[in-house]
Amino acid sequence: MNPVLNSALNTTINPGMAPVATPFFFYLLAGLAIAGGVLVITRRNSVHSALALIGTLLSVAGLYLMLYAPFVAAAQIIVYAGGIMVLFLFVIMLVNIERVSKERRFNRIWPAGVSAACGLMALFVFAFVKGKALFPDRLMTLRESSNTQEIATMLYGERGKMGQYSFGQYTFTFEIASLLLLVAILGAVIMTKKKM
Amino acid sequence: MPNFVMSYLGSTVTPGQAGNQFWALIYVLIIFAGVSVAVVAMNWIERKALAHFQIRLGPMRVGPHGLLQPIADALKLMLKEDIIPAEADQFVFWVAPLIGLLAAFAVYTVIPFGPSQAVSDMNIGILFMLGVSSLGALGIVVAGWASNSHYPLIGALRSTAQMVSYEVAMGLAVVSAVLMTSLNSTGTGTLSMIGIVQAQQQQGTWFIFKFFPLGLLAFMIFAIAMIAETNRAPFDMAEAESELTAGYHTEYSGLRWSLFMLAEYAAMIAVSSIAVTLWLGGWMRPFPNLLQAPLWEFTFSLFPGLTFLGLAAIAGVGTARMPSHSFFRIQRIGLGVFASLLASIALLLLLIAVAGRSADTSIAARFSEGIGYVYWFVLKVAIFMYLFIWYRATWPRYRFDQLMRVGWKVLLPISLGVLIATAIVGVIIS
Amino acid sequence: MNAPAKDGTQDVSKPWQSEKPYLDSNELIINMGPQHPATHGVLRVILKLDGERVLGTECVIGYLHRGVEKIAENRTYAMFNPYVDRMDYVAAVSNGLGYCEAVEKLLNVEAPPRAKYIRVILTELNRIASHQLWLGTHALDIGAMTPLFYTFRDREEILKIFERYCGARLTAHAFRIGGCQYETYAGFEKDVKNFLTFVAPKIDEYEALLTTNRIWLERTKNVGVISAADAIALGVTGPVLRASGVKWDLRKAQPYAAYSDFDFEIPVGTRGDTYDRYLVRMAEMRQSLGIIEQAVNAIPEGPIMAKVPKVIKPPVGEIYHSIEAPKGELGYFIVSDGSTQPYRLRVRPPSFVNLQALDIMVRGLLVADVVAVIGTIDIVLGEVDR
Amino acid sequence: MVDKYRSQYGSALEALTYLGQNYLSVDRSLIPDLLRLLRDGEQFDYCVDITAVHYPNRENQFDVIWILYSFSRNERMRVKTQIADGASIPSCVSIWATANWLEREVYDMFGIRFEGHPDLKRILLPDGWKGHPLRKDYGILQQDKEWVQINLGIESGQ
Lengths: 196, 430, 386, 158
Known about the structure:
The complex is a heterotetramer of chains A (about 200), B (about 425), C (about 375) and D (about 160). Chain A has helices spanning about 5-10, 25-40, 45-65, 70-95, 100-110, 110-130, 130-135, 150-155, 170-190. With about 200 residues, chain A is mainly α. Chain A is globular, with a radius of gyration of 21 Å. The termini of chain A are far apart. Mean pLDDT of chain A is about 70; it is low at about 1-15. Chain D has about 160 residues and is an alpha/beta fold.
């Protein structure tokens, strides 16, 4: 790993924690994540791909742990693996769409898919090459601590005292997210609304 | 070698913190063995207690008073043929019980049997537990799907919907407990399990008694939600024999089926240990602050020994009253051996307790202290286990839609209310 | 779905027809097959489900059909007596009473008073045993495991009394045409009295377990409701009819076998749902205890067998006689052509007719309720299929 | 009550009693409306039973019997009619819903067809069964030999 990142990491961890980020675990988890991702796409049976996706999510949670962000890892397990994936499996089982109709629809739109993938690939390559210039020194400065007060101050600056926080520069993004959720909920209600 | 071992015995830091993988492995093995023994004991107690509730005797043939029945069951299940339905999904069918088991046992890495008796003290302990226990629902969904037959699918969907909806109520109840931890001097709460128990110690009250109605209410919600979470007693819609034959594990047989049973019991113990840690002050003995005097300290440290002595006495009375017919001779010997085993454990514990009292810094003192912690924790969990059985004997089963109604329309609003009330009271007091 | 008519009584004559012309995509047809834990015997119910909700049911019966009525035409009157016990094997004694009384009516013979009293005592004991078996299995279907063991322990006492009286426990061939075969064994009254004092607190135990049990109420209140008008139209009788508010009991309306000498009330429900049927049957058990007590205290002395010719050859003619069996009105229509064998013997089984009401009670409920409703109608397949 | 009907229907209706149980022996043509009249006019609102008796040597071979009971008057009544073999009789499911299964059983056992019955098919015997067991000409061993041998392929039990 490049020295800058390593030293930055070491300073941020509190002294009591022995380094968990041993290379062996890192490669294991990263490998698992990639393998899971590949499996998700290649599997014909939708339940298998869902399981593979769960595998990926869990290994990513492991990666977060290695980044000394247990809270994010736990959130990842609860929200993604425990919550959303269960509902995914629910939908797969309940709707039980036959495979044939899926394939026919999939085949017709593959040109659009490929072009979108190429666009995304170009974006990644561009960011990777120009890395330094684009994000000069935006290293992860968020230090992990079990003290919720510290986290609050880090996230929301000094105003993060108990109860009087305001989102500062994140307000706009927060509103968009909630709007998105609202749309999703309405969609769900309309789609499942049977003539009772 | 001894001082090497001794140094570890005396360690006051959980292996996780000490970063010592080897010692953590030992702890994990101890906990696995402990939980398996607990599951075996639970199996026996459930059958006997349920039987005595229903004015019958329960297993009496296999070993004295059916003591060897769980072992016989385990053997039977191992020898049973492992049938996989024809078009079942081989891989998924094989993986499902493993997911269930993984979810059930992963929780034990964080359960604190004592201030330093836990595999690792994650600072997100309670979150990790909720996350992993919600993975259990995956195992069930996938099992229902893989059996590729009508009833298990419906059973699986039902039990998953039930688990997901009760997780919400459970999570909120847990949050209100965690809120209480932040009312100590430093004003910052903690998610780590050991931290929660220490907070209860500092605040001198178990959270069940804190802000009187709120703590109890949150505890009640958690107690109800945890029964639904493990598909037990009044909420056992999944294996409602009368309609869906046996729910999601209909197609399983033999060892694979026993994995599901193991997962269910392990989940029950895990969930009730969360309740104990959060509301009933984990490993703390009753009235730790009030009765500080060394005399009290000593009497409480005698409790483990006395309990085993009581058990040994019961077993002894059992051997004495065993009928003298030749058929019972072996059983009488068996029960006698069991009684003497219990008696010897009792003696050992009493010895440690007495030795511990005399010299404070000696290994024995720390040993008896450690035993005390584990004993009180296990005692509280055992009470919960008995409640599970009691519910199963008395309550009929909820219908599925009533179950969901209770989950969403009753438990959720109350737990939200309790959460808000705890927050308000907390801010006002601190 | 046949929408219920304005005044709440559905047009019951037309069985369920699905308005939807095509089989709806998520309409499920589940077979609650002949061997299913909750169908109290070999009854197959085809459930047409929309998701969890029941659209309609169709009962397929006949798995236990033994052709009892055909056999009757080839047996003499006395030889047919044991067959009658095999129909509703849970309440065998009351079957026997019905048959013997029907033939006695045909022969225009009256059983002596002592025989009548013995008959009443044994039939009421049998009613309690039948209700206890119903309560045990019904509670088990809804999930409460414990009542089953309590009820079967107490039922054991009744079966012991039958065994001491006539040698058989379940299908006790207790009565003969013209009276009873056996004089009551020494200590019969003492046993019955001990039983009365033994079982009274036990019924309170069942009540304590279930009557105010939150989940029991939730699972049985407003489940399987049938209005009085529908019940009468469907010919439903017994506790199911009384739970719907019709105060009618053959023991009071058309008393037979010394029932006129005893006073007892008829418990009646109001809403006609599963909970009311539960209450009616529990009250009926208590009433039966009262009847037995009065009968045992006032049992007359005297012969136990009327003068009945060795070979029973009733005059040509036909009669219909019915009694109040634990499940409802059990009737015998016997046509005799003067020979020793009945020309035609028709049995009117209460379970067969009550089962017909299942379709009405269950529409719109959930699968779990179908099990509860089958339990509450209290059917015995031996009687349904004959 | 009986004479009111005799005046109305004249010869087609005949009231008899045996051992205190009165019953009407009625001509086949009166059947659906007389029963409806009995239910509405005379409150015989509970149809206890519908059954039949087979008299092979009579030209009208079958007796179809309705056993009625009136709750309000606490009284029983039987209505009998005679029909020839193969003749059908109007169904009274629309009068009493209980008739549905009772008529199906009479059809199953005797082969008497009921017109207007919602779904007249066998109720106790398997659908593919040939013959109607309760007819006098149907031997008692036939049921055993026929079904057991053909379907189960084993020698009959008797």
